[in-house]
Amino acid sequence: MIDPREPIVTPVAVADLRPTQITVGMREVALKRQMIRSQDARKKTGAFLGKHMVPVVLGPKNRNYVTDHHHLARALLEEGVKDVLVTVISDLSALDKDAFLFVLDNRGWMHPFDENGRRRDYSAIPKTIGELIDDPYRSMAGELRRQGGFAKDTTPFSEFIWADFLRRRIDPDAVAKNFDKAMKEALTLAKGKDADYLPGWCGPTTD
Asked: What class does CATH assign to 9-134?
């Protein structure tokens, strides 16, 4: 087990990173790409990456499994950035594949749900960052947080929890046809009592 007080930081090829989820919000990825493009060449390979380290768990064959910042990793890949700094939060490389995946799942380091919100077998998780599938509701959840619909929370995969909440209430055709209009509906829903169980909820209260 890695001591979290003494993180090990090392450069890793973005193409070699292993996801621990099936989807990302491609609108979120596009925003990350804009952020990367706004940096000059030196910052892309130096200070910028130093401030955006990707947390990983070492798995079988010493592969790096990403536990957060999948959107950043996908954006770096699409922008042609070859390497990223990773910080190892746990070394589980001694486990076999089945035991490793079980531990990831039970520690909240995995989100094996597809773009329809359905839980899938571990085998459905892509082998590479480039194979992650778009989930428009994950993009909605990210935008919802930026617009103050809910607060940033330490709950693992909290944006996906919000994405599933929105998925069950806003028609996918409405999201595809007019994202901005769908976001107005999402903001209203986020402030309602039906959402008060969700991580980071900041709706009205009588307390």
From this structure: alpha beta
pTM of the model as a whole: 0.90
Q: DSSP letters of 133-191? A: EE-HHHHHHHHHHHTTSB----STTHHHHHHHHHHTTS-HHHHHH-HHHHHHHHHHHHT
pLDDT in tens, 108-158: 999 999 999 999 999 999 999 999 999 999 999 999 999 999 999 988 899
The CATH label, of 3.40.50.150, 3.40.630.10, 1.10.8.10, 3.40.640.10, for the domain at 136-194 is 1.10.8.10
Domain ranges of the chain: 9-134, 136-194
Tokens of 151: 């607060």
Q: How far apart are CA 64 and CA 182, in angstroms?
A: 36
